[in-house]
Amino acid sequence: MITETDELMACSRAHIAACPTCTAVFTLHRSPTPHMDECGFESYTIECSQCGTTLSSIVDPTDETLLVSEVAAYNDVIKSRQVA
């Protein structure tokens, strides 16, 4: 049985965000057992349902803010640093 407390907890773990490529708005529902990356951040990889861009996101542990970036843009930065 789902209680009102369960529903409130689920809502508090949801984040509204926008795709940095096409600005489509989506809701990310955080996992109760999230993936923690090597730096200790709660991280997610998702695909924008509008433009298909692969997005990477982390939850800032200090204020619970969802930070979203395009994976391809990050890869381009890494490649440019390797060339230099």
* Count of separate structural domains: 1
Number of helices: 2
Rg over CA atoms, rounded to whole Å, is 15 Å
Largest sheet: 4 strands, antiparallel
Strand tally is 6
Flag low-confidence runs. 6-11
Can you tag this structure with a few keywords?
84 residues, four-stranded antiparallel beta sheet, alpha+beta, 2 helices, 35% strand, two-stranded antiparallel ribbon
Structure description:
The chain has a four-stranded antiparallel β-sheet with strand order 3-4-5-6. The protein has helices spanning 4-12, 71-83, and strands spanning 14-18, 25-29, 35-36, 42-47, 54-59, 66-70. Helix content is 26%, strand content 35%. The longest helix is centred in the last third of the chain and has 13 residues, at 71-83. The chain is globular. Residues 6-11 have low confidence and may be disordered. The chain has one domain (4-83). Strand 4 (42-47) and strand 5 form a beta hairpin. The protein has two helices and six strands, in the order H-E-E-E-E-E-E-H. It has 84 residues and is of the alpha+beta class. The protein starts with a helix and ends with a helix.
